């Protein structure tokens, strides 16, 4: 059975999903652009680098993005839960640096369900949580002609099969174009 | 009842205000930028002894007095300080008004006997002002004009009832006239007020207009003049005392709801909105606990504010019980009434409430948004502002491709003007597949930025064969390669 890309993307609302580095940010911005509405981006304040609004303005409107800086991951999770439960923001992105306990993952899941909004955890590789609805891995691919080519694959899926796609980003139309279905 | 007016004049208010915070034992002047040059705004007694005067150019003053110390003037702070003095003067009588930028006027009729007579009261004022380190000159008269003239032209006190006679020996400048009029009067040989009174009124009016005689009549008491006291600052606080202590958070919330309704109706009447609210809960053992709520937007809607208190009230330790609740709006901002419309802005209100709830946990300034800024320096091309104190702005235009993620420059090994063929970054090795560039960005020389002290930068977008697309730059003036960002 072939799985269509657009059955899985944009991600199912009312759930939290996970995305691994290195290209997690472009995935998150693309999702924010697809979903529309307000996006809350939660990160910890000791991280030196930060997202660049000029850079992601071709993915989504920076006016819709609110950034929250927290002192540690516990605060970040509390903010994420609050925001997901309120249902005011369509997408809550949280950058995680430590593995999440199953309880914490499940709480985020329930909050997303209550607020009918989407949660996305950016996780380091290999620190996934069992409560997540889907887990994606997103890596850039070198291509001489096209400098937006990426390989997106689902490595965990609670309600579907695993698959991988080569996609590129069309900045003119703000849409994802699936190049071809890559073989597993 | 006869009026007795005291006029207080603080001839060196601005410099003494600064002197109170940092004691200065040297010639000192406050400088203000007026009409393309720095001029002396106010100076202390030592500087005056050195021959300096107000309005003098600052560079001239420094040439006269090389040891002159200076500080920029702050008229706003001076005005604020004068209001503080007006509040202090309320200890002598309730009827205190401001008189220009450096004076106060008090109507002490009926309150002088509380201080042992007028002379004792003025002595008390002098003593307290001397202790506070503020020069003051005081005039007392039957009218506001007389008191002003006596204060400014150095008569200590007009005897009760003797005002018209005392006043006549003052120079005409004591009548609060324009400089031009005073000079014209002096040219005509009118030096003292007595000379002016001696002139026929009709001719004076024809020559100088109504102003001169109007001021004269005010000074001698023929025409009345008001003192308008300062309006007391609006107070937004309500409280409730309970006959029996309470301890359940539901009860406290119910009490808070009642207080909020009172407070909000008060705010609505004045077209104000609360920005910071403080709920003080006093326990039966006299200890008190405070719950502070900082709102993302000025609000006066009790139904919306109440749920935001839940988290703070939940953390309070009620001890043996709470018997007094006090709610005060500490930060208040104007919030005009708005036309209701069918479109509504439900979602925006809910987003503001979310920001407030997040803010009570992690601090309101940690919820931020990006605002565009006019700079070609990549890290300065946007501003990060607290979301509660800014509005979204646009449009956002990417003139050239910019990375999604920016970080402080990280040095890599490399030589030459073109990106290195192979390099290591963050313990990973990369091979350059495709390099786009260079895009030269020059530092903004008009702003001192230490990060840009290495001079020009040539930016390259490098697509590595491993996949990752990095933003590298080369500094030709101080050769070196750095990674500053990553593309999608």
TrEMBL record, chain A:
It comes from the Bacteria. InterPro entries: P-loop_NTPase (IPR027417). This is Protein ImuA.
From TrEMBL, chain B:
It holds the Pfam family IMS_C. InterPro entries: DNA/RNA_pol_sf, DNA_pol_Y-fam_little_finger, Rev_trsase/Diguanyl_cyclase, SulA_CellDiv_inhibitor, UmuC. Keywords: DNA damage. It catalyses: DNA(n) + a 2'-deoxyribonucleoside 5'-triphosphate = DNA(n+1) + diphosphate. It comes from the Bacteria. Its EC number is 2.7.7.7. Residues 26-148 form the UmuC domain. Residues 236-334 form the DNA polymerase Y-family little finger domain. Monomer. Poorly processive, error-prone DNA polymerase involved in untargeted mutagenesis. Copies undamaged DNA at stalled replication forks, which arise in vivo from mismatched or misaligned primer ends. These misaligned primers can be extended by PolIV. Exhibits no 3'-5' exonuclease (proofreading) activity. May be involved in translesional synthesis, in conjunction with the beta clamp from PolIII. Belongs to the DNA polymerase type-Y family. This is DNA-directed DNA polymerase. It comes from Parasedimentitalea maritima.
């Amino acid at each position: 059975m072939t799985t269509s890309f657009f059955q899985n993307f944009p991600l199912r609302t009312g759930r939290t999903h996970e995305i691994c580095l290195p290209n997690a940010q472009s995935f998150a911005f693309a999702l924010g652009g697809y979903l529309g509405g307000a996006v809350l981006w939660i990160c910890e304040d000791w991280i030196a680098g930060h997202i660049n609004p000029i850079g992601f303005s071709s993915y989504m409107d920076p006016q819709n993005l609110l950034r929250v800086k927290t002192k540690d991951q516990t605060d970040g999770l509390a903010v994420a839960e609050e925001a997901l439960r309120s249902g005011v923001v369509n997408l809550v992105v949280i950058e995680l640096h430590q593995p999440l306990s199953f309880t914490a993952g499940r709480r985020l899941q329930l909050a997303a369900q209550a607020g009918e909004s989407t949660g996305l955890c950016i996780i380091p590789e290999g620190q996934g949580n069992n409560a997540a609805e889907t887990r994606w891995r997103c890596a850039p691919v070198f291509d001489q002609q096209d400098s937006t080519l990426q390989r997106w694959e689902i490595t965990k899926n609670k309600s579907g099969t695993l698959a991988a796609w080569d996609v590129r980003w069309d900045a003119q139309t703000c849409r994802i174009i699936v190049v071809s279905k890559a073989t597993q | 009842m006869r009026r007795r007016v005291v006029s207080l004049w603080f001839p060196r208010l601005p410099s003494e205000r600064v002197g109170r915070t940092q004691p200065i034992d040297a010639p000192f002047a406050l400088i203000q930028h007026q009409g393309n040059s720095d001029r002396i705004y106010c100076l202390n007694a030592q500087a005056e002894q050195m021959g300096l005067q107000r309005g003098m150019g600052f560079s001239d003053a420094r040439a006269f007095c090389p040891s002159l110390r200076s500080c920029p003037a702050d008229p706003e702070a001076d005005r604020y300080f004068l209001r503080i003095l007006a509040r202090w003067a309320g200890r002598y009588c309730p009827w205190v008004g401001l008189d220009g930028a450096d004076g106060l006027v008090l109507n002490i009729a009926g309150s002088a006997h509380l201080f042992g007579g007028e002379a004792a009261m003025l002595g008390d004022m002098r003593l307290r002002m001397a202790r506070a380190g503020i020069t003051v000159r005081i005039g007392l008269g039957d009218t506001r004009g007389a008191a002003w003239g006596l204060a400014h032209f150095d008569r200590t006190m007009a005897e009760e009832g003797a005002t018209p006679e005392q006043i006549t020996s003052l120079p005409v400048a004591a009548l609060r006239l324009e400089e031009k009029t005073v000079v014209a009067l002096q040219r005509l040989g009118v030096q003292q007020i007595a000379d002016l009174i001696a002139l026929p009124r009709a001719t004076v009016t024809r020559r100088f207009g109504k102003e001169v005689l109007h001021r004269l009549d005010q000074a001698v008491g023929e025409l009345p003049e008001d003192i308008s006291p300062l309006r007391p600052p609006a107070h937004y606080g309500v409280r409730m005392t309970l006959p029996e202590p309470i301890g359940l958070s539901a009860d406290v919330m119910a009490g808070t709801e009642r207080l909020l309704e009172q407070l909000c109706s008060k705010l609505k009447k004045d077209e104000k909105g609360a920005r910071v609210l403080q709920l003080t809960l006093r326990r039966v053992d006299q200890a008190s606990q405070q719950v502070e709520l900082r709102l993302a937007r000025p609000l006066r809607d009790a139904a919306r504010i109440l749920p935001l208190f839940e988290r703070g009230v939940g953390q309070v330790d009620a001890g043996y019980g709470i018997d007094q609740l006090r709610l005060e709006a500490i930060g208040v901002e104007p919030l005009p009434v708005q036309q209701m419309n069918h479109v509504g802005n439900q979602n925006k209100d809910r987003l503001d409430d979310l920001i407030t709830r997040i803010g009570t946990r992690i601090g309101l300034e940690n919820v931020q948004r990006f605002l565009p800024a006019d700079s070609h320096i990549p890290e300065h091309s946007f501003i990060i502002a607290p979301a509660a104190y800014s509005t979204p702005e646009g449009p956002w235009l990417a003139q050239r491709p910019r990375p999604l993620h920016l970080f402080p420059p990280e040095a890599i090994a490399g030589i030459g003007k073109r990106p290195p063929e192979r390099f290591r970054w963050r313990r990973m090795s990369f091979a350059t597949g495709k390099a786009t560039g260079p895009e030269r960005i020059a530092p903004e020389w008009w702003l001192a930025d230490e990060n840009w002290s290495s001079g020009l930068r040539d930016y390259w977008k490098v697509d590595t064969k491993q996949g990752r697309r990095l933003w590298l730059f080369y500094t030709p003036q101080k050769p070196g390669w750095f990674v500053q960002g990553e593309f999608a």
